[in-house]
Amino acid sequence: MSNKTEVGIMGGTFNPMHIRELALAQFALEQHRLAKVIFVPNGTPPHKKTDVLDRESRFEMVKAGVRDNPLFEASRIEIDRPGITWTIDTLKQLQEQLGDNVRLNFICGEDVIDNLVRYDRRAEFLGLVRLLICPRSSDNGHKALPNWRATLPEAEIELIDCPPSGISSTLIRNWIRAGKSIRYVVPAAVLEIIERKGHYKQVIDGIAADTSGTASTEVTITSMKVGRRKRKTA
Predict the structure, then answer these.
(1) CA distance linking residue 212 with residue 199, whole number of Å
(2) Has this prediction a pTM greater than 0.85?
(3) How far apart are CA 203 and CA 201, in angstroms?
(4) Domain of 96: which CATH number?
(5) Could you tell me if residue 221 is inside a domain?
(6) Residue 159 lies in a domain
(7) Cα-flanking dihedrals φ and ψ of residue 190, to 5°?
(8) CA–CA separation, 218 and 215 (whole Å)
(9) Is residue 219 part of a domain?
(10) How many structural domains are present in the chain?
(11) d(Cα 74, Cα 230) in Å, to the nearest integer?
(12) 62-113: pLDDT as tens digits
């Protein structure tokens, strides 16, 4: 057992943040005794080519969404950094900021396993974090855990026991455009911002223009665009 302070890292586009993400972070915090969870909204992710709100608006919603939980924190680390940002670089910067007495716990979905298998900096990445993985369904997690560990034997992997959910940012955006209520699907503070500013009334053509003046291409944490995969050899 580690004697270090355990800190959760949860990232993504948060377009917009919703209650499933907050619940997952809370499950991880309680089940694995995390001191806190840091939410890391990204800047301009290359995997999201359309319908992405600008970074400052998304950060505003994340900050509002976590403010009533003293163990949740919103980070600007990728919002403020220009240029292409790989997840591994974000983790290194967070580790440097938090100190050697902290262990990073990477909160993610089980698709991280396949992505890491093909990642050429896998050993370096896994040396930075413990993986806390949410399964696709509540039924397969305990059965899948031994397979995950066998697939990535160099990784420290633990399960987040959580119920399945169909809530997603895409679903929420579609509901807004259909005139459906998103009350209780997003945090109340996020709902207030969306309604007051009229976010997502129309499909955004590409990634919304940044107001920060530091346009960049970012890589998300939750979808595990961790870096370039190994090239196939002939």
Answers:
(1) 18
(2) yes
(3) 7
(4) 3.40.50.620
(5) no
(6) yes
(7) -70, -40
(8) 10
(9) no
(10) 1
(11) 32
(12) 999 999 999 999 999 999 988 777 889 999 999 999 999 999 999 999 989 9
